[in-house]
Each structure stands twice: as C-alpha cells, then as structure tokens.
Design a protein that fits this description.
Elements lengths: L5 E7 L7 H12 L5 E7 L6 H4 L6 E3 L8 H17 L3 E5 L1 H13 L5 E5 L8 H11 L4 E4 L2 H10 L7 E3 L26 E6 L8 H14 L3 E6 L5 H10 L6 E5 L13 E4 L8 H8 L4 E4 L14 E4 L4 H12 L2 H18 L2 H15 L1
Parallel strand pairs: 1-2, 1-4, 2-3, 4-5, 5-6, 6-7, 8-9, 8-11, 9-10, 11-12, 12-13
Amino acid sequence: MSGRKIRVGFFIDAYKPGAGTENQLRGILRHLDASRVEATLVTLRDPVPEQYRAEIPWPVECLRVGSLFSSSAVLGFLRLFSWLRKQQFDIAMIYFVDTNQFVVPACKLAGIHNIIINRRDMGYWYRRSLLFRLNTVNRLADYFLVNSEAVKQLVATRERFPADRIKVIYNGLWDKITAANPATKESLRIPANASVVGIIASLRPVKRIDRFIEVAAIVLRSVPQTYFLILGQGECEAQLKSQAAKLGIAERVRFLGQVSDVGAYLPLFDVGLLTSESEGLSNTLMEYAAAGVPAVAFDTGGNPEVVVEGLTGFLAPEGDIPGMATKVVAVLTDNDLKRQLSNQSAKSVSERFAPGTIIRELMAFFDAIK
C-alpha cells in the first residue's frame, strides 16, 4: 500500500454528536489527515442529520438496517457485503454493539484484512446472551481499539480477546474549552461568595447522579454556602429532583438541562464531580482538567488514568459517598489546595489528550497494521 492513501471505513449505529463515543468519532473525522487517509462514514440505521453533515469532510452512507433479527436485515447484510467488496477498505473501524454484530462478519466475508472493534466503556450493558454473541463475532476481528488500560483489561477478560491485539489510544480533547457568553452566578441566582460544585453528565442510571445529590447533602453540613449544578438531561430527571426535595436541598441543586456550551459554566465550578459507577475514559474529567477545575471522582474504570491523586484532583473508593464528600470539602475549604489542583489540571491535559497527539497515535497504529 506504499504511496497511496489508507482507505478507512468508520461504522456506527447512528451519528448524533453529544454523547461520548459520537463526540470522539466526530473529532477523529474532523482531524484526519486527508493527504494520508480516505475515509467513509457509514451509519447502520439512521442517516446523518443534516445539521451534522456539513462538518464531515468525507463521503457518508446509511445502511438503513432495522432489527438485526429480521428478513430485511438479511437483505441489508447482502447489500453491505456487495458494497464492501467494491469499496476495498484497508481498515474497518467499528463502533457500538449492534454495528459490531452486523458489520464484522460482512467485513470478514468481503476480505477486509484489518477489522478493528472499538470499545470505549466498562461494559455496563453486558448480558450473558449478548456476550456469547459478541465473543463469537469478535473472533472474526483483527484488533480492538480501546480508550483506557481499564477497558483493555475488561475486553481481554470478558470478551476473551487476546491482549496483545488490543491497542490503547486515549480520548481526544478535540475542542477548546471556551465560552462565547460566560454564565454568571448572578444569572443563576447564586450569591457571589458561594462555592459551586458541578457535574456534567446525562441523567441516566449508569451516571448515578443520585450519588451526586447525596454528596451535596453531606457537603452542605460543612460548607453551607455551596450550590450544586447539574448539566445534562435524561430519563432520571424527575426522580433526581424528588430526591433533592426529600433531602431538603432542592434550592441548592440546580438542574440546567442539556448545555451546548459547557465552557460557559465550567469557570463557575470550584470542584467538578463524576459519580458514575462505570467509566471507560471520561470526557467530562478531561473537560474539567482543561478548564482548570479540580476533579473528584470514584476510583473506577479509567478515572485514575485522568485524575492524578492529590495533583489534579482526588479519587474516592467506588461507591464511598462520605469519602467523596470529604474530598470535596477539603478543596472547598483550602484555597491554596484548590489553586494548586487547578494549575496542575490544565497542564496535565495539554499534551496527553491534544488532537495532534491522538491523531499521531492513530495514524501510527494504522501504519503499523496496514
């Protein structure tokens, strides 16, 4: 293949930036070197929404597959196989479980020699029947690409894939954390001298925002002039608001909904929390660090690969809510500590997660396997 561009197909269930994996794929597609790569984005089900189409500098296809276990899926598989034979991709990059099950066999039959399954979380969705299907399909793949050492260990153990064919490349911090219209405490009805603790997360069960609210109740006993901001939306919102009301802290917990410009709010955070029970490599922790926000998270998944204990933030044992609250209070009540953590946080992400770093590592991986 020397002297010609590497042809790469990127396959995903649907392309809707906003969530972690989609945002990472978006960053890769926008930063790939067009002098070295020819890319195509392929969605399994829905076409790329028009508002995102203009930002993708590559051809886009949609397979329009519904249920994987239907007669239409069989026809779709045959169409995909025929299309893949014509495309002659050097590399297939495959995201998400349904696409994993559908596209990997088609790529293998079409003669693609470098099939890469991407796995970017700690398998909170694992079920016995699904794992059985994945472990069967995964044997057809050549490599896994994961975003943390923690995910690598999980894939090797639970998905039974050889560890020497699992490559770790961290998530990229693709966009600068800036704010066109910075939020103010006044606009949020927060006193000027109050402390602010925030979290950026979708309001889904795995993100465990209920633990954030429990931490808030404990912190308020020691630092009563504290407000808590939740940036995100999801199915658990009503339940979480009820929880805050029952704990008597509803006035101190603000639900801001889905925020397109998180950079407008991060300067308000004295501490950024992450209370998920499962994380591959958290984009939220990276955003905190880039904005100079000290982080406190649970010691789970890839969190220790982003938060350096005592240097850029603190880690509490998984599920230790009082322990997390103690760490938060320590930062809120020690301005020198908060300043030190803030300075080190920004430095820690400037190179490790920079777009140039991630693309260089990805291209080196492509070059090594092609």
